[in-house]
Amino acid sequence: MAGNNKKSYKGYKNGLLLTGGGATAAYQVGVLKAISKFMPRNHGIPFPIISGTSAGAINATTIACYASCYHLGIRKLEYVWNNLHTSKIYHSNARKVFSHIISGIVGSYRAGYAPKKAMSLLNNEPLRQLLNQVVDFRRIDDNIVRGYLSSVALTASSYSTGDSISFYQADKSISPWTRAKRRGVQTNLHTDHLMASSAIPLIFPSVKIKKQHYGDGSISQLSPLSTPIHLGAERIFIVGVSQPQQNIHQAVDFNQPPTSAEIAGHLMDTVFTEALNSDLERLQRINRTLSLIEESKRSLQSPLKHIDTFMLSPSKNFHVIANEHYEELKWALRFILRLMGSGKDSDSSLMSYILFEQNYCKRLIQVGYEDAMMQEQNIREFLQL
């Protein structure tokens, strides 16, 4: 959408929803890359309404910055993931890993009135530096003014109130909203919002924005579809991370209690997938109910509207792929995982979320690309490409 080929978002209601998932969000890049193959070069983004959570928020913001040229945004996003190393997301060498843990333990014994740092297993300060280099937030307003973008939203969870907060940047037609345990807050997005949205609980430290402390947006996000709907989306393309179940071992000893890593992996699987699945079921029920009401009477009897969705989820199990790249983790991280009961060929999915290594990410990008190409015709029809 450049020059005379510009396509305004007005009346164009495609929304994009990118869920959380740590390193598994590399899959989203493959899907978005495939969609770029369905479009001419120098064309703008096919999703004027963008919403992301956790690692999905980082992908969402990056492509929002290049809404005027979708191909360019995808190339830049893919370049980052293809050249990613764990050390660019969080400190992974032994000295920094263990000094961070020790300082956190010591800090917890400080007096209650003394200022304290947010505690976490890992220090993700390198991620902040990477975001400052890659994401040019000034471009978002420019794309909104020029009509390439309607809105972009990042969801974080408030540890202070327990609410799900969607920080969004949009034109003046979008008003803030308040619902049970969730709110939309209009603001100028910056790095702190991304750090907050992607702060996986216990793994990464919480982030203070104004007077509240925030963590990963998936924690208290009971209605992921709510944000793009409030932003005006009528068709929502969703890239999820719910994967086919596949046991790594032929037999599992159910008499043994789960390890800490298995529990952590299970919790993360639940946080990143269950709310979306429940919300989709609820949306389908609403759509069926609305279909029973005469179209001429719908707006009079209910403020609800029909929303079309298309969700693409991985065809392969990322936990299995992550175990194939286990040796790429620094020994300090392997040591911590071992203490938690997770090693190579473990049943825990924890490693699939924190393995930010380029070979693993490239595999996930390829899976995403292949999955989307298999659905090319359906995606084209849904997005009206």
How many DSSP helices? Answer: 15
* Shape field: globular
Listing every helix as H and every strand as E from the N terminus to the C terminus, the arrangement reads EHEHHHHHEEEEHEEHEHHEHHHHH
> Which stretches are poorly predicted, pLDDT < 50 over at least 5 residues?
1-6, 247-251
The biggest sheet amounts to:
10 strands, mixed
Distance between the terminal alpha carbons, to the nearest Å?
Answer: 13 Å
Give an overview of the whole structure.
This protein has 385 residues and is an alpha/beta fold. 43% of the residues lie in helices and 13% in strands. The protein is built from 15 helices and ten strands. Strands 1, 2, 3, 4, 5, 6, 7, 8, 9 and 10 form a ten-stranded mixed β-sheet that branches. Strand 7 and strand 8 form a beta hairpin. The longest helix has 32 residues, at 260-291. It is globular, with a radius of gyration of 21 Å. Mean pLDDT is 86; it is low at 1-6 and 247-251.
Note the topology:
Elements: E1 14-18, H1 26-37, E2 49-53, H2 55-65, H3 70-82, H4 94-107, H5 125-134, H6 138-145, E3 151-158, E4 164-170, E5 177-179, E6 182-186, H7 191-197, E7 207-209, E8 212-216, H8 226-230, E9 235-239, H9 260-291, H10 295-301, E10 308-312, H11 318-324, H12 331-339, H13 350-354, H14 358-374, H15 376-383
Parallel strand pairs: 1-2, 1-9, 2-3, 4-6, 9-10
Antiparallel strand pairs: 3-4, 3-8, 5-6, 7-8
Helix pairs in contact: 1-3, 1-14, 2-3, 5-7
Search tags:
about 375 residues, alpha/beta, 10-stranded mixed β-sheet, about 45% helix, disordered N terminus
